[in-house]
Structures are given as C-alpha cells and as structure tokens.
Amino acid sequence: MDDVNDKKTALVTGANKGIGFAIARGLGAIGFTVAVGARDTARRDEAVDRLRADGIDAFGVALDVTSDDSVAVAAKTVEQTAGRLDVLVNNAGIAGSSDGGAQNPSTLDLDVVRTVLDTNVFGVVRVTNAMLPLLRRAESPRIVNISSNMGSLTLQTGPQLAAYATSKSMLNSITAQYARELAGTNVIVNAACPGYVATDFTGFNSPRTPEQGAAIAITLATLPDDGPRGGFFDDGGVVPW
Ligand code: NAP
C-alpha cells in the first residue's frame, strides 16, 4: 500500500461551523484526511481553508443532506478523491422553528416536524446509505450520529421542543437499527451527545466549547475493533435511551 491508501478519510456533515467543524479539526489533528461536508460553497471553502491553515489535509464536499442528488454527488466526490471512507460523522442538524408554539405538542406545526426530520433523521439515512459502499471498503469503518440527550426518553431534558427532541429520539432508534443490521460486519455505529455547546445553534449561550462537544464524537470515530456498537454516549459514558 502506498501512503495515500494508508491515510484514513473522515467525512463530517455540517462541517463548516460549530461542533462539526471542531470534529473535522479534531480528526484532522490526529491524522485523518477530512472531507468537509457543507451545503454552501463559500462557507465550505472557508472551512477548508481554515483547516488547511492549521496543517490539516482537507477537501470540500458539496453536501445538502436533504437532497438525494446532492448526497449522490457527494459520494462520488469522496470516492474519486479518497477511494474509500473510514469514518462518517452525521453531524448536520437543525432545531426547527418554535415560533408561536410550533414545537409545543398541543400546537405542533407538522411542517416543522417534517422539516426537522428531513435533516436530522432522513438526512442521516440518505448520507449513510450513500456512503456505506465506501465505508465497507475500509478496514475499520466507524459511523457516529450526533444526537442529543434531549432525545432521551429516560432523561426528558432541555426545553420542550417536540420536533427537535423527537427527531433525536428517532435518530437514536435508527442508530440501533443500523447497528443491528451491521452487527456481523466491521462497521461500528454509535450515537453521541455533545452536551450543551456554544454554537449558532444555542446562540453561543454556554461555557462549553465546540472542541469539548466534539470529543465524544472523535472517541467514537476512532473506537477499536472490539469497541461498543449501537450505543448512545457522552463524555460521562452511556446515555440512557
Ligand atoms: P450549528 O452551529 O448550527 O451547525 C449546524 C451545521 O449543520 C451547520 O454546518 C449547518 O450548515 C449544517 N446543516 C444544517 N442543515 C444542513 C443540510 N440540510 N445539509 C448540510 N448541512 C446542514 O449547530 P451545532 O451546535 O454545531 O450542532 C451540530 C449537531 O450537534 C446537530 O446535529 C445538533 O442537533 C447537535 N447538538 C448540538 C448541541 C448544542 O448544544 N449545540 C447539543 C446537542 C446536540 P449551514 O451553515 O449551511 O447552515
């Protein structure tokens, strides 16, 4: 094998800012080539430039997780550039509007639910299924789905957001489904909760940094072959479903 094939590649969706950017930088810092998945060209190019300025091997992947066509092209881009995929981090996510009680169960706006599911759940399925053939070419492929403890039916924590929280419950469930299907393979799938992190998502209203939020995803992206499968983890360990 030459050097190019020895180098592992990680695709992070929504990698242009926030926790996704921190995951990309963290994986790049430990030697991964980082495929920066982002839907906006200018924001994607800027993120790639910032990573390269930090000495990280990065390339941009045009990727809107709500578009089948965009996801198919993204898979081709990764295949042509890297030949295979070692790590997929499904990070792209949205909270959805909560204006006028749109996410209170009793006044739930089903269009908001559809929009949030399309990104946070269907987007993960689209990207995962498009990338799985490339992941299967890797020696120790890992998939990390960025969830939230707001999706935990046990904890029922955080503000009441009936589109967002339920999308993360479903993401947890689909993570377990993937892990069951892939149980007999080398593809390890888990969900991660980054904690409450200062990003655009939270109005930067937290002392917790994106780097701190990224740490659990990086751990799960680099699990050994006998690592846990089909679980839900944060910095403190297992998060109850
Ligand atoms: P953020 O700063 O708002 O970043 C979200 C990222 O997702 C952006 O890069 C955004 O791209 C991208 N994205 C949204 N829709 C997309 C689409 N259709 N296609 C491709 N990319 C898309 O939020 P964050 O706090 O880093 O959140 C990242 C993940 O962590 C999310 O899944 C979120 O649910 C989860 N999380 C966050 C917290 C927290 O406290 N921040 C807590 C628990 C879980 P654009 O720049 O183009 O919009």
Q: In words, what does this structure look like?
A:
The protein is an alpha/beta fold and 241 residues long. It has one domain (4-238): 3-Layer(aba) Sandwich (Rossmann fold), CATH 3.40.50.720. 41% of the residues lie in helices and 15% in strands. The protein has seven helices and eight strands, in the order αβαβαβαβαβαβαββ. Strands 3-2-1-4-5-6-7-8 form an eight-stranded mixed sheet, with helices on both faces. Helix 2 (18-29) crosses helix 7 and helix 4 packs parallel to helix 5 (110-135). The site of NADP nicotinamide-adenine-dinucleotide phosphate has 30 residues, from helix 2.
What is the structure about, briefly put?
With 241 residues, this protein is α/β, with parallel strands linked by helices.
Bound molecules: NADP nicotinamide-adenine-dinucleotide phosphate
**What string gives the helices and strands in order?**
HEHEHEHEHEHEHEE
Tell me the CATH topology.
Rossmann fold
Tell me the count of domains. 1
Looking at this structure, what is the CATH superfamily? Answer: NAD(P)-binding Rossmann-like Domain
Instruction: Quickly give the CATH architecture.
Output: 3-Layer(aba) Sandwich
**What can be said about the biggest beta sheet?**
8 strands, mixed
Overall 3D shape: globular
Strand element count = 8
Q: For this structure, what is the CATH class?
A: Alpha Beta
